[in-house]
Amino acid sequence: MEDSLRTNKDPLEEISALKRKIRKLEQSESEWKKEKEELKKSEARFRSYFDLPLHGIAITSPEKGWIQVNDQICSIMGYSRDEIVRMTWSEMTHPEDLAADLEQFSRILSGQIDQYNMEKRFIRKNGTVVWANLSVGCVRKPDGSVDHTIALLEDITSSKQAEEELRESEERHRLFIESIPIGLYRNTIGPHGRFIMVNTALARLHGYDSVNEFLRQDVLDLYVDPAQRKEVSAELVEKGFISGKEVRLKRKDGTPIWGSITARAIRDREGKEMYFDGNVTDITNRKRMEAEILALSITDQLTGLYNRRGFLFHAEQQLKLSERNKSKLLLFFADLDSLKWINDSLGHEEGDKALIESANILKETFRTSDIIARLGGDEFAILAIDIDGVNPEIFTARLQKLIDIWNNQENRKYKLSISIGCAYYDPGKPSSIDDLIARADKLMYEQKQNRKSLPG
Q: Which among 218, 217, 248, 216 is positioned nearest to 232, based on CA atoms?
């Protein structure tokens, strides 16, 4: 009976176990189907990534060669897929970039690195050059050897061409800047600004052999008066520009030069000053010529003294200083006696000599700081400055002594005689230069009337 029950039970257990196996198999098959479906999706995603037109992708194996390439890499290289797989990577690489690429790839094969990035050139099928940003990575076997490599290529030819065009444009701009004979500069804002850029002309204007040497200089050190640099900077900040401002600069050896500066403030979108752009023209020769022209215009050509214009120009300045400093002045008005007799009797050449000799005696009588002029004809004027505590008779006595010495020389064809009058300038009671001349002239005339007449 027990055997009968055991016999009936075993088939049931077997059926139950078989059902469990069937369910398990069904479950496994379902999971396998799911896994298979996920794998298909993954492959589809990979294929979509692989075929994206953004990058060229190539999968290669050290043993099998080309495994797979996408359409984009074919487009970059200009070859069909069948043509590419019959070629080697090196055949498409620009000869000048081949060594660097092979060196990096050999490091992957030797296990030193797992990936590398580089910019390199390839040769298209039509012979043109394409620049690519190349990224190479590897997948290794359990023993560490390379199973396959994945190369990503991004065509950067356009950006490289743009870079080259920009570089060429900058080079043309640099050559243009360097060819300009005017000094150009860019410097930071502020009285202690520093140079950002200068051209060779500016460096040479200041006596420096190179731009780099010049850029190391403090801007303030390039001005004869550093306060003038601060004045230029303040004016630029206030107005935003300056034009033709004449400043005193100096060369490397300290030689002073004149420069004309034109500059403007460069602002950002918010209106804030970023830096100054400007140019400097060497006007030293022009200023020298102006000084020479001015000297000619205010100098008496015969005696070398100031003429009437020069005397009035400098005398007016001294009157203003005297008024400000409360210092007194002395104006002397002198006349060469008997010039007409000398001209008529001995000739105008002797008359010119008499005027020159009189001018020399006046220069010896008065000080270098005094203003001495021939106003015209036989008339002279002298403005003596810093005369506090000085008696005017000291000057007149010295003048007469020098005249006597000259007259006592042998072989003189005539004797010099100079009549002179003097007027004080009191800053407490200001008067014009014309008024001073008139007062001194009156006194001089009185002296002349009291003198004994010379022959003629």
A: 248
Query: Which candidate, 362, 391, 386, places its Cα nearest to that of 374?
Result: 362
d(CA 18, CA 39): 30
For tokens 């100098």, the residue is: 299
Rounded to an integer, what distance in angstroms lies between the CA atom of residue 443 and that of residue 372?
18
To which residue do tokens 């002349």 refer? Answer: 448
Instruction: State the DSSP string of 114-174.
Output: SEEEEEEEEE-TTS-EEEEEEEEEEEE-TTSSEEEEEEEEEE-HHHHHHHHHHHHHHHHHH
Which has the closest alpha carbon to 70: 54, 91, 93?
54
- d(C-alpha 289, C-alpha 354), whole Å: 31
Sign of CA dihedral 287, 293, 299, 303: positive
Distance CA 377, CA 337 (A): 11
Spatial distance between the Cα atoms of 216 and 53, rounded to a whole number of angstroms: 51
Between residues 148 and 268, which one has the greater pLDDT? 148
Instruction: Quote the DSSP letter at residue 203.
Output: H
The neighbouring-strand residues paired with 330 are 384, 424
178: left (phi over 0), alpha (psi -120 to 50) or beta: alpha
Q: Return the structure tokens found at 139.
A: 């997948």
The tens digit of pLDDT for each residue in 22-49 reads 677 666 666 666 665 665 555 555 555 5
Q: Do residues 329 and 423 touch, judged by C-beta distance below 8 A?
A: no
Whether residue 354 has pLDDT greater than 70: yes
What does the radius of gyration of the chain's CA atoms come to, in whole angstroms? Answer: 50
Q: For the chain, what's the residue count? A: 456
The answer to whether the beta carbons of residues 399 and 422 sit under 8 Å apart is: no
Residue 455 is encoded by which pair of tokens? 């022959």
**Segment 400-428 mean pLDDT:** 91
